[in-house]
Amino acid sequence: MTFNGTWKVDRNENYDKFMEKMDINVMKRKLAEHDNLKITIEQTGDKFHIKESSTFRTKDIDFTLGVLFDYSLADGTEVSGTWEMEGDVLKGKFTRKDNNKVLTTTRAVVGGELVQSYNYEGVDAKRIFKKQ
Ligand SMILES: CCCCCCCCCCCCCC(=O)O
């Protein structure tokens, strides 16, 4: 499976502006830019198990493609949404519970790196991970 393995964040693009749009305060944004996020992805068919670890927390997440689930962002913001697979790209659509606004995200392996893209209210960002 394309995504399986452990991926460590290597660099961010426009992540501060994205988090600012998300209304995350400057102190949390500075910490989040350097959170050493590591995600381990285990896909079995349409089921995923994700182990997330960062300077903020460690967390296990289970989801099935196309099935709604709840997730808390590292700053505590609660969202609910789904991941779908389109070709080799994972596409996520999550709605914030506090304001009903939508955050979209994709994951794709590009040139051996895991690229996670985000969009919120017109602001795009990327986090790019290297395989461990
Ligand atoms: C705190 C800054 C905002 C970060 C945005 C993260 C968006 C995450 C979308 C949902 C992820 C679900 C769990 C997962 O697949 O890892």
TrEMBL record:
Q: Where are the transmembrane segments?
A: none
Q: Does the keyword Magnesium apply?
A: no
User: Which part of the chain is the Cytosolic fatty-acid binding proteins domain?
Assistant: 5-22
UniProt entry keywords in alphabetical sequence: Retinol-binding, Transport, Vitamin A
Transferase listed as a keyword? no
Q: Which InterPro entries match?
A: Calycin (IPR012674), Fatty_acid-bd (IPR000463), ILBP (IPR031259), Lipocln_cytosolic_FA-bd_dom (IPR000566)
Output the Gene Ontology terms for molecular function.
retinal binding; retinol binding
Function of the protein: Cytosolic CRABPs may regulate the access of retinoic acid to the nuclear retinoic acid receptors.
Which PANTHER family does UniProt cross-reference here? FATTY ACID BINDING PROTEIN (PTHR11955)
Which family is this sequence assigned to? Answer: Belongs to the calycin superfamily. Fatty-acid binding protein (FABP) family.
Q: What is this protein called?
A: Cellular retinoic acid-binding protein 1
* UniProt source species: Paralichthys olivaceus (Bastard halibut)
Instruction: Give the lineage.
Output: Eukaryota, Metazoa, Chordata, Craniata, Vertebrata
